[in-house]
Queue: 2 jobs
Job 1
Amino acid sequence: MSDAPFKNPGWAGNTGEFDLTEDEVRGDDFVGSRPSGGGHPSVSATYPYMLAEKNPDTPLFEGAYKERFEKILTRYPTKQAALLPALALAQEIRGYVSPQSMDRVAELLELSSAYVRGVTTFYTMYNKAPVGRHLVQVCTNISCNLCGAEDVLAAFLRYTDTELGEMSEDGNFTVIEAECLAACGFPTCVQINSRYYENVTPAEVPKIIERLKAGAAGGDV
Ligand code: FES
């Protein structure tokens, strides 16, 4: 893996008692892909992001996904209780949870469409629109805000050439604001896909963007 472009040890970086590299600490091996048959036999992915090139017209819960969907149902006393992992699986397949996906999940779980839409729109981990390969979530809550999060957010928007929530033309980036990411001791905290970047300053943003672009082009992320 490549070296980090800046010093950002985080909560358990190699300045702590563990002899780990930053990449090992942040664990990015699985980012961006998951076999259709899943990993653990009975769970659904819970990734808060998906790739821009996912096909939103892919049939839901067919083939290997049908098997995973059925396994998910076995873990709950009623099929209605499987709503959250079913939505997560729909997002994994199609890249986001469209109104059509919500309706299909509602039909399969024998819930009303309104109920499913209420749940889906409550949770920010379900994307209601396609997002870029790198979903950049900048915490602008109180600790981060006091330490300059607004400037970090502005820098991400400037260097990705996007508006808030918009996908960049190359499909690489979507930048959004996040509420507290529970890393308040390391402001500004930015979550990019599953990885946390801590103590981020505006000056580091171009380097982070370049690193992510290199990853999208086939290099290490
Ligand atoms: S306020 Fe930013 S991580 Fe908590």
Note: Residues 33-128 form one domain.
Job 2
Amino acid sequence: MRGKLFLPAGLTLVIGGLLASAGHGQRPSACEACEKLAGYVMPSEISDEIRKMVGKYKGGGGPENVAIQKARGVIETQLYPAFAGGAACPEIDSEKWAIDYSHKRRQAALHKGIDIPQPRGTPIRAIAEGVVVGRFMNQGNKKGIEVMLRHTPQQTGLPFWTYSQYTHLAEMSPLPIGARVEIGAEIGKTSNTGKMGRRIRRDALHFAILYSAHPEWSNDGAVVTPKDGYFMDPNAFYRLQPPHDSQSLSRLPEGQKAIAVPYMKTDGSLEPASTKRIWPYVCN
Ligand SMILES: [Zn+2]
């Protein structure tokens, strides 16, 4: 008989509700500083699908998350950067957008960003004007130290809200939640933080882009979640014209796969001067 409780369904719901509301009242917000920012909504207003898209959630993972991620933009597009005037910019290495990571994770997984190796300590630059909406130490997690920015349509010139993610930073950025950053502002330094088992990670920036047609977003203390958000191939962020969604981009003719990527020069000027979006490292 142990463990068997016979309660009418209605009573069970009442007890469940009381527990839920008690928990809610006591628990401090995961990101109090976020609550003052434009578009912020509580984590409970973001669907489980979006939580699973950005990472592990409610024990989910593997094939279910991968199916969501593919449907929401994590598919290969064959886009690649072509820096203006043949500038020498730090390049993406073998760890390209949306490649299969199942062999690295011992379960179905995708690479939800691009990796750009650079010497340790190299400054990482804000890819557009924006506001800091996420700061995560990610202890015991592969991502390592992470900063996330939110960019309005006005700040990027794109017709949606964009979120840029920078991980494996050397240390937490001094920029607090809510800090407004200019395009090209230093948001951290390159390193290799993030748990890797016995292997040693090379020094590299993992850079990712999320976007949404809706301005709402949340931060649950572990991840930033744009309402009804999608992943974007970071190369596509630099396209001046639509499409920006991976499904359409994958079907572009071969001649349109090279993306003219704008950047900041070592003297701090932008190329082209009028750009609202730049590569996350300075170029020579
Ligand atoms: Zn990566």
Note: The first helix runs from residue 9 to 26.
